[in-house]
Every structure is written in C-alpha cells, then in structure tokens.
Amino acid sequence: MTKDTFLDNAGPNTRLAHIGYNPRDYHGFVNPPVVHASTVLFPDCSAMERREQKYTYGTRGTTTTDALCDALNELEGSAGTVLVPSGLAAISIPFLAYLSAGDHALIVDSVYEPCRHFCNTMLTRLGVEVEYYDPEIGAGIESLIRPNTKLVHTEAPGSNTMEMQDIRAISDAAHRHDCVVTMDNTWATPLYFRPLDFGADVSIHATTKYPSGHSDIVMGSVSANAKHWSALLAAHGAMGICGAPDDSYQILRGLRTMGVRLDHHQKSALAIAQWLESRDDVAKVLHPALPSFPGHEIWKRDFKGASGVFSFVLKVDEQAQFKARSHAFLDARKIFGLGYSWGGYESLAVPVNLTDRTIRKAPGEGPVIRLQIGLEDVADLKRDLEAGFAAAAAAK
C-alpha cells in the first residue's frame, strides 16, 4: 500500500502528520532536508537552454519549499501553490497577477486593513479602480459587476468584526461574468473551510498564523485552481518573491500539530465568547459560532469549525470615553499580550480601529476589542479579562 493510498480516507490529523513529504524519498528521515540554494547546476548547455530539470534557480523552489507546497495543495485541493514572505504579499501577488490598468476590482469592506492600504495606494496608482462592497451582499454582488470587473476579493469571517460571506453565491455570480474570485482564508485554515470547494478560484493564507503556530515565522501562501494557476505562477516568478527554505521547514513542522492546536483554540475561544456574552459590561460578542451572531447560519452551513480569533464590543455609555475605557481594559491585562498578529500559542488582545471602513462602520455601543485565544487555561484567561473589566469600569 502506497502512502497516497492509505491517506485517501484518513482523518485530518492523520493527513497533517503525513502530507507533503515521503520519508522514503530521503533515506527514511521523517522530516525533509532543508535545502539552501541560489545556484542550481545543469549538466550541459542543452539542458540549460531547455530547462530540462525540475529545479533551475533558488527563487523557483527547492525540495524543501516543494514539500510545503505539496502539503498545502493536499489541504486546499488546489492545482498549485506559491510561497511568499508574508500574508500581505499573499494578497498582493494574486491581485497583480489578475488585474491590469483599466480593470475594476470589488473588495469586501471588512477586509484586512493592510489589504485596503495596498488597494488604495498601489492598485489605484497602477490604474485599477477599486470598489468596496458590503460583506453580507451575497448573490447581490452581481449588481456591482461591470464589464471591466476582473476580480472579486472575499474574506470570511471579516477582519476584526467577523462578518460572514456567502462564498458560493458570490463565486457563482462572479463567474457568470468571468471574474476571478480570491479569498483570504487565514482565520479558518483549509481544515475548517476550503474556498475552492465553494467556488473561489484562489485561496490566500498568512501562514504566519495557524500553520506556523508559534509566533516566530512570517510567511504567506497562495493556492489556485487549474484555470488560474498558470497566471499566478507567472506573476510569482516575474516578481521574484519566494518563501525561504528554513521558514518553509518550520511551517511544515507547524502543520503537523495544527489540527490539535486549532481544536484547543476553538474550544477555549468559544468558552470565553459565551462567558463574555453573559456579561452586562459587554455590548455584543462578534463570534460566528455563537447563535446570536448575524452570520451564524452561514458559518454553521459552510464551515467545519472556528478558530481562536474573535472580537467583542465593550459597553460604554459615552463615545468620549471609548478610548479611555478601551485602553484601561487592555493596560490591565497580564496574560494577554498587547500585540498584532495571532495564531500563536499565546493569547493576544488589541484595540480595533475601524475608521477605514466605508460601508460597515464601527458599532456605536462601545469600542471593539479583538482577542486571540491561545493555548492557556480558560480559567486563567477569564481572570485576566476580569481585571480588564474592573479597570475599564474605574476609568474616567
């Protein structure tokens, strides 16, 4: 029985433990070798001219980066994957691959803020018209599609405020007009949602987050279906942007435990979210797995699970106190770190700035605080949050 055969009907954790590399390919060692390379030698001029070998130069991949790409293709169900140095690069490369001057792009209004900055600066300077749309528009997005619309970008749940999107409905509408559909799927990972199975053409990840899992690697990946793979690969090569072999090795190692970690993140985050929802000093909890959340039915229908990131609205009566109460809450914490990113083993909390939104404005009940629930014990995290609520209540 071959390795591929025994994985055909295997569960997610079994697959994560074995995909991407076959020990029999390298003397039985269970982890792939880390190949550092720039120059790759050819046997003769004819082979060099025709590029008659798998590896030609370090930017075009090594056995180490290929091991990670193969694993991600298995998880995504994609025709190909490219690695890039960050999650933002994973967004910008496909945008540059599929958009040209004079094109129109539809970008969800709840998008990751650095993506919005890239669109409003680089894309517009290159002659691409950018329009933001309501994340809950669903099939209604067809009314926004123009003859020159070439790309629809989605992100579910939405950054910071967690709005859900009907990816199948949006993809079906976009494809009727031959638009490429991209999705930032960092929150769910392909374990809990596979964008290509729901009609998206390109799945984007900040592998910095859950695939890494240890807050020590910055990297991104982009996986495409067969129709859009060649254009993505060409843009990736033209830009000369690639993932490093050491980082690829670390991400592949992180993948082995991602399922176990995500399960813990999910359970702890939901326990904290339910506890927060019961508190009088919380106006609302923004977590798709809560039945009270507006996008819960879409999450329940399409997703297999939830990760450890969600937000809540601190109840504050006067808008003039939003900042002071938010800062008091966050400055009181000891276990939660005050820092960007998420997906690592440690819990994090940050104030959310929604002033960049054009359609989905900030809630009026109070400041939004985003939590990343790490691998700590729930009781300890609750105590840390309790101190924050006490400090916020005492703030002037």
TrEMBL record:
<dbReference type="Pfam" id="PF01053">
    <property type="entry name" value="Cys_Met_Meta_PP"/>
</dbReference>
<dbReference type="GO" id="GO:0019450">
    <property type="term" value="P:L-cysteine catabolic process to pyruvate"/>
</dbReference>
<protein>
    <submittedName>
        <fullName>Cystathionine beta-lyase</fullName>
        <ecNumber>4.4.1.8</ecNumber>
    </submittedName>
</protein>
<keyword id="KW-0456">Lyase</keyword>
<dbReference type="GO" id="GO:0030170">
    <property type="term" value="F:pyridoxal phosphate binding"/>
</dbReference>
<dbReference type="InterPro" id="IPR015424">
    <property type="entry name" value="PyrdxlP-dep_Trfase"/>
</dbReference>
<dbReference type="InterPro" id="IPR000277">
    <property type="entry name" value="Cys/Met-Metab_PyrdxlP-dep_enz"/>
</dbReference>
<dbReference type="InterPro" id="IPR015421">
    <property type="entry name" value="PyrdxlP-dep_Trfase_major"/>
</dbReference>
<feature type="modified residue" description="N6-(pyridoxal phosphate)lysine">
    <location>
        <position position="209"/>
    </location>
</feature>
<dbReference type="GO" id="GO:0047804">
    <property type="term" value="F:cysteine-S-conjugate beta-lyase activity"/>
</dbReference>
<dbReference type="InterPro" id="IPR006233">
    <property type="entry name" value="Cys_b_lyase_bac"/>
</dbReference>
<keyword id="KW-0663">Pyridoxal phosphate</keyword>
<dbReference type="InterPro" id="IPR015422">
    <property type="entry name" value="PyrdxlP-dep_Trfase_small"/>
</dbReference>
<dbReference type="GO" id="GO:0019346">
    <property type="term" value="P:transsulfuration"/>
</dbReference>
<comment type="similarity">
    <text>Belongs to the trans-sulfuration enzymes family.</text>
</comment>
